[in-house]
Amino acid sequence: MVPKRFRVLFLLVALASVPASAAVRVTAEGAAPFVLLETAREGSTAWYDAEEWLSRFPGAVASWDPDRGRLTYHRGPRTSILDAGKDQADLYRARVVDGRPLVSEAFLLERSSDFLGLKVAVEPLHGTGALRVVLDPGHGGADIGSRAAAAPPEKEVVLRLAQDVAAKLRRRGFEVHLTREDDRALSATERAAAANRWEADLFLSLHASGEARPLARGFEVFVSPPEPPGTDPRLWASAQVGREADSRRWAEGVRAAVGQAVPSFDRGVRHVPTPLLEAVAAPACLLEAGNLSSPEDAEALLKPKGRAALAEALADAAETFFRESAHTP
Ligand SMILES: [Zn+2]
User: How far is the CA of 159 from the centre of ligand 1 (A)?
Assistant: First the structure.
C-alpha cells in the first residue's frame, strides 16, 4: 500500500514525465494546418496544452485564470469559457498540470468546432501516424568519412550520435528510422529512397569534418538551394521544391540547437546542392557537427557527456520544429 501523498506524487510525476506519444493534426478554416504534440497522458488519454492550441488560431485571444481555473477564449464576437473540472477525470473540462490548462484529445476531437465557433477538423496521429524522423549517419563501410588523428573515423562518430538522438526522440514518442544501423556503405540515392519509403516528416543527415588545421573548428548546416530563377520546372527535379522554407527553418533550428550544446564556431546555414538532400521528400538538412581534429569540437562529439548534450539539443530542435510547424502531410 502506498501512502496517499506518495500516490498523488506518483500521479503528478507520471503526468509530467510520460513522453509524448500522441499527436493530432488540426485543420481549420483561416489557419495553417498544424500538429499538436501531447503534453501529458493518463492511461490511454492524451492531454494537450490548451493555450498552445488556441494560440494557433489567427485573431484568437486566450486567457487563463489560474485562481478560478478558467480558460477564456475570444475571437471576434465569440467568447467561450472552459472551466477546469473538479473531477480531473472529466474529459470535457480543462485539467491543470504544472499550473497550465490542458484539454483532452476527446475534447479536441468532439468539441473543437463548438468551442472555437469555427469549422475544425482534428485527426489523431497515433501508431503508424506518429511523426517520423529519419536520421542519416553519413558514410559507412569502406567509406570511413573524415579521419582525425586522435579520434575514431567520422562514420563511427556520426552513427553513435544518430543512435543517441534516436533514443531521445523515441522516448518523446516519435517514430525514428536510421538509414543505417551498422557499418555499411550506402549511396545518396539509397539513403534518400529509404527516407521517402518511410514517409519521413523530417530528415537530418549527420556528419563531422576532420580538417587537420588546428584552428579549423565549428559546425555548419547545409540545405538544398532554391530553384534558380528561370529554371524550367520540368527539368528541376528536386524533391525539395515547395519544401525550401521548411528545410531552412529546420536547418536554423538545428543550427541554434548545436550552438547551444557545442561551444564552437557557428558557420551558419549554407545552400549546397547535394544529390542526397535534393532527393528527400521532407524538410531536410545536413549537419557538419564539428571538426574531429579540434580538441574542443572533439570533446562535444566524442565524450559521452558532450554527445548526450548535443543529442538532447537535436531532439529539442526536432520537437520545436513540429510544434512550430504549419505541418502539412
Ligand atoms: Zn561526412
Answer: 11
Instruction: Count Cβ atoms below 10 Å from residue 37 Cβ, excluding itself.
Output: 22
Q: How many A from CA of 246 to the centre of ligand 1?
A: 23
What's the gap in Å between 132 CA and the centre of ligand 1? 23
Element (H, E) at 262: none
Domains detected in the chain: 20-127 (no CATH), 131-324 (3.40.630.40)
Cα separation, 63 vs 58, whole angstroms: 15
Name the pTM for this structure.
0.66
Residues around ligand 1, an ion, CB closer than 5 A: 138, 145, 207
Digit-coded pLDDT (tens) for 133-159: 999 999 999 999 998 887 899 999 999
The three-class DSSP label of residue 111 is helix
- The three-class DSSP label of residue 137 is strand
Q: Are 205 and 285 in contact (CB under 8 A)?
A: yes
CA 145 / ligand 1 centre spacing (Å)? 5
